[in-house]
Write a structure and sequence with these properties.
The protein is an alpha/beta fold. It contains 14 helices and seven strands.
């Protein structure tokens, strides 16, 4: 069983630790274990309860009423609220709840509902990407584990692959190559660009994670592509990044190289003339459609 601090509950629920203490004292909302030095410790059940409480409070419920709900009543009210969720922040809260519980069925059911209401592209842009930003912050704070990130990453990855496979562009003359450099494993952003290219009629060749540069060079010398696209998320020093881009530019000097990712934003590297930074999804579509 995982144990959480009151700070973990604050990070996960958005409710201040001071407020949680008051609710414990006034309404007996939670009953944490305490160490010999009176430090609170919370269980998975406590996390589930505070996430449910947080969601209801954000939807206008009074804490004096919510605190009296048992776990079954809490869940019933949350599910009832979930039927009318339209606000991305509310969706993110609920997706986080399913993530903490490693609840594949709940996560998938909610995600399908959001996609039905908003469409796949808007769901990725307005819900999933902000959701992963929050996951990253919680991981940095130590409130969730790498296992949670892997859990949701694989679920979203599967959706991106399935949605992209719906486009039959194998006869298209326009081709884009997608890849990640060696030691680069974060592919959700690249998979989304791959989806957008397929949606816009391109034949997409997706090579995935950690591609050796020698293999990439051989492929680019022997096969014609209109664009090459990659992202840089894992830590890389600026000189190494600029050298990589320079070498990539040399072997793919006829057409455009499109790049994005956290490391590009951090380092703002010097760019060869045929390399362009993707600012967002609309910018990506504009560049491949020019």
């Amino acid at each position: 069983m995982t144990h959480y601090s009151i700070k973990d509950l604050e990070h996960l629920s958005g409710i201040k630790a001071h407020t949680i203490r008051i609710w414990e004292k006034r309404y007996q909302l939670l009953d944490p274990n305490r160490s010999d030095t009176n430090i609170r410790s919370y269980t998975d059940d406590d996390v589930r309860r505070i996430l449910n409480v947080s969601m209801l409070i954000k939807n206008g419920y009074k804490i004096s009423n919510v605190a009296a709900f048992d776990d079954a009543k809490l869940q019933e009210e949350v599910l009832r609220q979930n039927k009318t969720l339209l606000d991305p922040e509310k969706n993110i809260d609920q997706l986080l709840f399913h993530t903490v519980n490693l609840d594949t069925f709940g996560f998938e059911q909610l995600l399908k509902k959001i996609i039905q209401e908003n469409g796949f592209s808007k769901t990725i842009q307005n819900v999933i990407f902000p959701f992963f930003e929050r996951i990253g912050l919680l991981w940095q704070a130590g409130s969730i584990f790498v296992a949670h990130e892997h859990f949701v990453s694989n679920l979203i990855r599967n959706h991106l692959i399935v949605e992209t496979a719906k486009f039959d562009n194998h006869l298209s003359e326009k081709k884009v190559l997608f890849f990640l450099r060696e030691e680069e494993l974060h592919e959700l952003g690249l998979l989304y660009f791959n989806f957008l290219a397929a949606e816009n009629g391109f034949r997409c060749i997706y090579l995935g994670q950690s591609l050796p540069f020698s293999d990439l060079a051989s492929l680019l010398r022997s096969t014609e592509f209109d664009f090459v696209c990659t992202t840089f998320i894992n830590v890389i020093e600026k000189p190494e990044l600029e050298l990589y881009l320079a070498n990539l530019s040399l072997i793919f000097n006829k057409n455009k190289i499109l790049i994005a990712g956290r490391q590009i934003a951090i380092h703002k590297p010097k760019l060869p003339s045929n390399v362009a930074v993707i600012k967002n999804n609309k910018d990506f579509i504009r560049r491949i459609s020019a």
